[in-house]
Amino acid sequence: MPWWCLPLQFSGVVDRLSATYHTKGIPHLVVLDKDGTVLKNDAIHQVLKDPKGDKFPWRPSRLVDLLPQHYLRADGTKAPMASLDDKYLLLIASASWCPPGERLIPYLAQVYRHLRAAREDDFEFLYLSSDRNQAEFDAVFAHLGFGAIPFEERQMFRDIAQLFDIRCVPTMLMFGPKHPTDPACDRPLLNGNVRDIFCQNTTSPETLVHEFPWCPLKYGDLNQVSDNINDMKCVIVFCEACDDEEQEEIRKALRAASEAYDGCSLLRFYWACESTQLTKILRETLHLGPCMGAHMVLMDIPSNASYYVGTHDVEISIESVLDFVQQPGAAMKLC
User: InterPro entries from the entry (predicted)?
Assistant: First the structure.
């Protein structure tokens, strides 16, 4: 190879780099700027499209550069995309052939109506189609009740998916308004997985109105947000064997702890109230034993693939959770 490489005996360094850059498979190409800033976390697609390196170092595109000049209003008329610059923007990547997306769209339409009734004109939803043809798109658009990217602009789906690492549909991304005085700034990405917020809401669309613009939750059901345990440090309370009242108290304690936590690192607080395939695998991996009472664990996969186990069947309160975060005990390696 005409470039430097790490010798085989430095496998520990490779493991730490993989955790740092969230490697999900090989080959995986990360492009860094001169100061170590990540320019592109997964540049394989760019290299394959640019084998001569004419566009090196493959700096990422901006959302504002990818969006078309116009979007479709709910009534089918076109409007300038620039008219949305001062609004929150929810992009909904979905398709008619996707059963979860088919179920999500009517619910989104309800949420949209409630938001319109409760808020000023400071937001818009746009459907980003992965439909196979115009007829499929038209069938979805007829029941949206909100805006969409025109079907003839569907080639941007792949570019936006590449930019924001969209791996499945439906995926919802929430963006803030553009900077009012700096046109060079892109829209800020507020949440790349709004679907998690919707999964956590088990009541009615009205509840979601009060949580808008749906920034990432710092707490939740482990079985609904399981992907996050690979990306950030998290506290998990396994309480599958606890009764309903005990589980509700645990959820309240973790919500309160997430609000009270003021540490310097990103930290999430999850509960596992149901015995699922995921919880069984984690129990076995973490050597927790059978479901008996509440069991608190601190997992830190991103930095050093380690975990910490709290005292079994301790009373879960905001104080005990935060104390455990501050003094989790001896670290154990996941692998």
Answer: Thioredoxin-like_fold, Thioredoxin-like_sf
Question: In the chain, how many domains are there?
Answer: 3
> What pairs with residue 80 in β-bridges?
70
pTM of model > 0.85: no
How far apart are alpha carbons 197 and 220 in whole angstroms? Answer: 9
Is residue 42 within 8 Å of residue 21, measured between CB atoms? no
Task: Please tell me the distance from the alpha carbon of residue 56 to that of residue 52, in angstroms, as a whole number.
Answer: 9
End-to-end CA distance of the chain: 30
pLDDT, one tens digit per residue, over 132-142 is 999 999 999 99
CATH of the domain at 245: 3.40.30.10
Give 202-225 pLDDT, tens digit per residue.
Answer: 557 888 888 899 988 888 899 887
Q: Cis peptide leading into 100, omega within 30 of 0? A: no
233, 266 contact by CB (below 8 A) = yes
DSSP, residue by residue, 279-315: HHHHHHHTT--S--S-EEEEEEHHHHSEEEE--TT--
Q: Are residues 30 and 92 in the same domain?
A: no
Nearest to 133 by CA among 115, 147, 151, 159: 151
Q: What is the pLDDT of residue 252?
A: 95
